[in-house]
Amino acid sequence: MNSSSILSAITFVYGLAGFLYIFAWVFKKPGVGRAGTGAAIIGLAGNTAGIILRWVESYKLGIGHAPLSNLYESLIFFAWTMVLIYLFIERKYANRIIGAFTTPLAFLALAYASLSPNIDDRIQPLIPALKSNWLIAHVITCFVGYGAFAVAFGISFMYLIKHRDPEGKSTLLSRFPRVNVLDELNHQLVMFGFLFLSAGIITGAVWANSAWGRYWGWDPKETWSLITWFIYATLLHARMMRGWHGKRIAYLSIAGFAAVLFTYFGVNYLPGLHSYQMG
Amino acid sequence: MSTKEISADASHFRLWEFFASIRLTIVLLLTLAATSIVGTLIPQNEDPAAYVQTFGPALYRLLSTLGLFDMYHSGWFRFLLFLLASNIVVCSIDRLKAIWQIVFVKIPAFKIARFRRLPQKEEFHDDRSPAQLQDLYAAFIARRFRYSRVEETDEGFAVFGEKGRLTRLGVYVVHLSVVVLLFGGLVSSFFGIEGFVNIPEGEAVQDIRLRNTNDTLRLDFAIRCDDFSVSFYDSGAPKEFRSKLTILKEGQPIFQKDIIVNDPLRYAGINIFQSSYGEVPPNEVKLEFTSQATGKVYSKQAFIGQEVVIPDNLGTFVLKNFERSASFKGHNIGEAFVGVLTSGDGNSTKVTLPLRFPSFDKMRRGRVAIALAGYTPRYYTGLQVTKDPSVGVVYAGFIMIILGCYITFFTSHQQLCVEIIPAGQKSRIMVAGTANKNKVGMQRKVAQMAEELAKLG
Question: Are the CB atoms for B181 and B394 separated by under 8 Å?
C-alpha cells in the first residue's frame, strides 16, 4: 500500500466526517456528531501517516525530499492543516456544528488532489529551483495560514446564516454558537492566519532572494499573496480600530479566502511570466 | 490672533486628522488590493510591439499613459504607497502620545474603583483574616505578574499585579516595519542593480546588461566561467545546473566558487546567480588529415584561430569560425566549421566542414582531405547579477513584522486586582482583571486565578 492509495482512502474518511457532522447538526443527533469527530481524528491520523509515508517513499526512490513540492502534495498538506485547526477549535469551543462547515473543505481538497486528472500524484524529483530548505519553511507557513483562513471562511459562512436569526428560533440554528462567539472566532483565526501568511510571504521572499537575487518581483503569485494580505489587513484594522463586527467582518473574511484560493489556483490561469510548478 | 492664522491652523489640523484616520487606512488597503489585480492581468514589462499587437494602438496608448505596463513602478502606484506610509506614520505619532504615558511610567496607577466597576468579577470568602492572607496573596501575585504591590483601600487592602505593559508597543513595531519595508523598496529601486550576462565556458566578461533599461554596466571585476555542467533525472527533468566561476581582478584570479540554483556567489556586494544556460559554437575540434598520396591519416586537435601544421609538408590549416548555417556553392549545408588550408606553395583554399557530413571535404579531391572527427559541445552559463543594498534593511523589517504581529495579536497588557475586605474575623475577596486585548481570554484567566487563590493554604 503506498501513500497515494492511503490518501485516496482518507478522502472518503473526511467525506464521511463531513457527512456525519452535517447529519448530527440537521437531525440533532449528538452521538452521530461524536462519530464525526472520530472520523475526523482517524482521517487526520491517516493524513499524517500518508504524508510521512510519502516522505519515506521519496527517500526509497533516491530522490528524498519533504512532500511539499507540487500541487498534489500541497493539497494534502492543506487538508491536514484545515482538519488539525478545526479539531483544535472543536475541542476548545465544544461545538461540532462548525465541523459541518469546515471538514467538507478538507474533503474537497483531498478529492481534488486524488481524483482530478490534471494532478499528478507521482513523487517527482526536485527541480533545481525547489532545492532549498526555504521550500519547507515557505510551504508550511503558507498552508498553516491558509488552513486558518479556510476555517475562518466556514465560520463566516455560519455567521451569515446565524445573524438573520440570532435567537435561534429556527431549530436548525438553535445549537449554533452564539453570533458573538462566531465573530470572535473568525477574528482569532484571521489573526493567526495573518501571522502565518506574513511569515509565508517573508520566507518566500528570502527564498526568492537566494534563488534569483531579488526578494520581490511583482510576479503574479507574489502580487496575489500581497492582495490577500491587504484584504486581511483591512479586516484587522476595521475590527480593531473601527469596531466593525459581524456581517461586514464575515464578508471581508470570505473575500480574503477567495483571494487565498485565487493565489493558490487562479494565478496559473493568468497570462505571462512563470509559475513555480507549485500550483 | 487673526482669523487667517486660525484658519491655517484649522487646515493643518484637518490635514493631520485626514492622515490620522483609520478610514483612510481602510480605503488605501482596499485600493491597493484592487489596483494590484490589474498588473497581474496585464503581463508587465513586455515588448511594446507585443502590447500593440494584443491591445491595438489606441488602447495601447491609453494603457501606456496610465502606466499599466509597469504599474508597480508607476507614479500613481508609488503615490498610493507613499500615502500609506504617511498614514502609518501619522497614525502612530497620533496614538503613541497616549500610549507612551501608559507604557513608560515608573509606578503604574491602579484605581480600585475601576476594578470594582468591571461587569465580571469573581468573589469568594475565606475563613482566615485579611492579615493572614495578605502575604500569601502578595506572593502569589508577585510570582505571576512582573509588577505588583499592596495598597490600602477604603474597605481593606488590595494586591495589584500588572504585566505586559510593553506589549502595547507591538502594533508600532508592525507599523514601523511596514515603513522600513517601503523604505527598503525605495532604496532598492534607486541603488539596486539587476542585470544578466551570458558567459561561454572558458571566457571572462566584465560587462553585464541591465534588465530594465538594457544598458550595459561595467563591473570592477571580471567573471570567468571555467566550466558549466547540467545533469538530468531519468524523467528528463533538470537535476542540477552548475557553473564553476572565477572572479578576476586585473586578470588575476582572486575568488572561485561553484554556483548552483539557490546557492549564489557573493563578492563585493554583488550577487551572481545561476539562471539559465545554452549552447555556444564549439571552439575546439578533432580533425583527421588524410594524405591523398600515401593514405596516411593524421589526427590533430584544432582551436579556432590557431594554425595546425600538417605533417608530410601538406601545408597548414587554420580553423576560422563556426557557422550556424553555412552555404556551399549556394546550398545550405547547416552547421559547419570553416577553415583555410594553405598548401606548401602558398595557395589558400577555403575548407568547409559540415557537422552532418564529417567527410565532406573528400569531394574537394585535394592533396589532403580534412575530416571532422569530433568536437566538444560548449555551453554558456546564463547568470543573473544583482546588487541590492536594501537587503539588510528589508530583512530587519521582516523580523520586526513577525515579532510585532505576534506581540500585537497574542499578548496583552494585563492588570489584576485582588481586594481583601474584612468580614468579621473572616475575609471577603474580590478578584477582577482587565486586558487591552482578548478580553474574553482575560476573563477566563481571572476566574482561574480566583479558583487558585481560594485553594491557597
Answer: yes
Collect all residues with Cβ–Cβ distance below 8 Å to A140 and sequence separation of at least 6: A68, A77
DSSP string, B246-257: EEEETTEEEEEE
The dihedral over CA atoms of A259, A263, A265, A269, expressed in degrees to the nearest 10, equals 100
Q: Tell me which residue of B387, B378, B383 sits closest to B274, measured CA to CA.
A: B383
- A·B CB contacts under 8 A: 118
Task: Report the candidate in B255, B281, B274 with the shortest Cα–Cα distance to residue B196.
Answer: B274
- Whole-angstrom Cα distance, residue A259 to residue A193? 13
Q: What residue of A is the nearest CA neighbor of B230?
A: A128
Q: Which CATH number fits domain A1-125: 3.40.50, 1.20.120, 1.20.1250, 1.10.860?
A: 1.20.120
CB neighbours of B388 closer than 8 A, spacing ≥ 6?
Answer: A213, A214, A215, B188, B191, B192, B193, B271
Is there a contact between B412 and B171 (Cβ–Cβ < 8 Å)? no
CA–CA separation, A14 and A2 (whole Å): 19
Q: What is the pLDDT along chain B (457 residues), one digit of tens a residue?
A: 444 555 666 777 788 888 988 899 999 999 999 999 999 998 888 888 888 988 889 999 999 999 999 999 999 999 999 999 999 999 999 888 888 888 888 888 888 999 999 988 999 999 988 888 889 999 999 999 999 999 988 889 999 999 999 999 999 999 999 999 999 999 998 899 999 999 999 899 999 999 877 789 999 999 999 999 999 988 888 899 999 999 999 989 999 999 999 899 999 889 999 988 988 888 888 999 888 888 888 988 888 888 888 888 888 999 888 888 888 888 888 888 899 999 878 888 889 889 888 888 888 888 888 998 888 888 999 999 999 999 999 999 999 999 999 999 999 999 999 999 998 889 999 999 999 888 888 888 999 999 999 888 6
Could you state, in order of their start, the residue ranges of all structural domains in chain A?
A: 1-125, 127-279
Cα nearest neighbour of A201 on chain B: B398
d(C-alpha B381, C-alpha B448), whole Å = 66
Phi, then psi, of B259 in degrees rounded to 5: -110, 145
Buried b (16+ CB within 10 A) or exposed e, A193-208: bbbbbbbbbbbbbbbb
**ipTM of predicted complex:** 0.91
Which residue in B26, B32, B40 has the most chain A C-beta atoms within 10 A of its own C-beta, making it the best mutation to test that interface?
B40
Alpha-carbon separation of residue B421 from A18, B103, B119, B131, B133 (angstroms): 54, 30, 19, 10, 11
- The residues pairing with B217 across neighbouring beta strands, listed in sequence order, are B208
SS3 A274: coil
Say which of A195, A230, A273 has its CB closest to residue B405: A195
The beta-carbon neighbor of A198 closest among B40, B237, B402 is B402
Question: From CA B89, how far away is CA B93, in angstroms rounded?
Answer: 6
Q: Measure the CA–CA gap between B320 and B334, rounded to whole angstroms.
A: 16
Interchain contact, B261 vs A129, CB within 8 Å: yes
